[in-house]
């Protein structure tokens, strides 16, 4: 998919939504309240975001709830962190709920899907985002480290989709967005062979899932974030972050809002004819052929 084309479409979508409904609202008063109530493109939709207590998932939840107007179920394993995030988004005017669950557990994800549908009246959007990225070089990697990575990143993706599916099938605008990565599908990094395999595996899953689910009108796409400043990435340390920022043509690491914006577009009505695609959101990090390409900028 052409990223500049998508960015343009996203810009038009967001701009159009704001301008269109603000002018609609000009006939009624109070204008500000009416405007914001009508402008939100995902008003009346409901979403599940896994890994939503912090980082990219929290950014997605904020985007869907506050910029989209969707009702969002926040999912992660740690209840108190979810509660904090839920309070923060609600304080900013969003409609959210939260539920502790492990994406690698079918029983947990079944509970999450059933409760979301019951609480919000259905499920329209699933962001299968929860993931882990501990580093271990191949020679010292154990089979159980490999299994844990696959259970969270790959099986967790499958279970999140599988358990939400009966509800997504009843939605008129069903969207699945997977969080993959540039690492694996496009690039490699020492210590992340298992991670890269899991993130590439998500794309293999997506391509067949998008064909199988097309008859229900469900789209399945993936965002491929570059290096995004999150609690998880901060743990890599300052040297790593500085090195990465220097390798990005746009000159900075990403923010969770950068990824939230991409998800907002893929979840929108306007993205209804896009399925089985990847959207790389990386500040151009994967573009330079060599360090010299950056030095010559
Ligand atoms: N940050 C980046 O630069 C970057 C780049 C490319 C792709 N990604 C991908 O983006 C996603 C989020 O990354 P992040 O940087 O935001 O990570 P993060 O800051 O470490 O946050 C991870 C989130 O996932 C939850 N989680 C982890 N394991 C889980 C499990 N088994 N079940 C349910 N929830 C689980 C965590 O909460 P609990 O621990 O409480 O469960 C937390 O909410 C991952 O899939 C990652 O691979 C990140």
TrEMBL record:
Record-level Gene Ontology MF annotations: oxidoreductase activity, acting on the CH-OH group of donors, NAD or NADP as acceptor; quinone binding
Superkingdom, taxonomy of origin: Eukaryota
Domain Ketoreductase: 45-226
InterPro entries registered for this protein in UniProt: KR_dom (IPR057326), NAD(P)-bd_dom_sf (IPR036291), SDR_fam (IPR002347)
Record bears the keyword RNA-binding: no
Any GO BP: fatty acid biosynthetic process
Signal peptide per UniProt: 1-25
Keywords: Oxidoreductase, Signal
Coiled coil: none
UniProt keyword annotation of Signal present: yes
NCBIfam families named in the record: PRK05653.2-2, PRK12826.1-4
Family designation: Belongs to the short-chain dehydrogenases/reductases (SDR) family.
Name the UniProt record assigns to this protein: 3-oxoacyl carrier protein reductase
Organism field: Gambierdiscus pacificus
Lineage: Eukaryota, Sar, Alveolata, Dinophyceae, Gonyaulacales
């Amino acid at each position: 998919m052409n990223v500049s084309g998508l960015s343009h479409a996203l810009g038009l979508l967001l701009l159009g939504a704001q301008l269109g409904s603000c002018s609609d609202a000009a006939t009624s008063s109070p204008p500000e309240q009416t405007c914001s109530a009508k402008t939100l493109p995902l008003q009346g939709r409901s979403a599940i975001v896994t890994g939503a207590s912090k980082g990219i998932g929290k950014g997605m939840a904020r985007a869907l709830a506050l910029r989209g107007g969707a009702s969002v179920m926040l999912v992660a394993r740690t209840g108190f962190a979810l509660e904090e995030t839920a309070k923060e988004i609600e304080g900013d005017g969003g409609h959210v709920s939260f539920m502790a669950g492990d994406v690698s557990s079918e029983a947990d994800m079944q509970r999450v899907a059933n409760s979301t549908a019951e609480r919000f009246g259905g499920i329209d959007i699933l962001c299968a985002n929860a993931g882990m990225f501990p580093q271990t070089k191949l020679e010292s990697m154990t089979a159980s480290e490999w299994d844990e990575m696959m259970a969270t990143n790959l099986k967790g993706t499958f279970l999140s989709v599988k358990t939400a599916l009966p509800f997504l099938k009843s939605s008129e605008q069903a969207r699945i967005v997977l969080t993959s990565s540039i690492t694996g599908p496009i690039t490699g990094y020492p210590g992340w062979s298992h991670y890269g395999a899991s993130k590439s595996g998500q794309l293999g899953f997506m391509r067949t899932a998008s064909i199988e689910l097309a008859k229900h009108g469900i789209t399945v796409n993936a965002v491929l974030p570059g290096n995004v400043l999150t609690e998880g990435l901060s743990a890599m340390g300052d040297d790593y972050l500085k090195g990465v920022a220097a390798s990005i043509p746009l000159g900075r690491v990403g923010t969770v809002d950068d990824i939230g914006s991409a998800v907002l577009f893929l979840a929108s009505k306007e993205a209804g004819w896009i399925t089985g695609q990847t959207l790389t959101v990386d500040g151009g990090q994967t573009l330079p052929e060599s360090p010299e390409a950056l030095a010559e900028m």
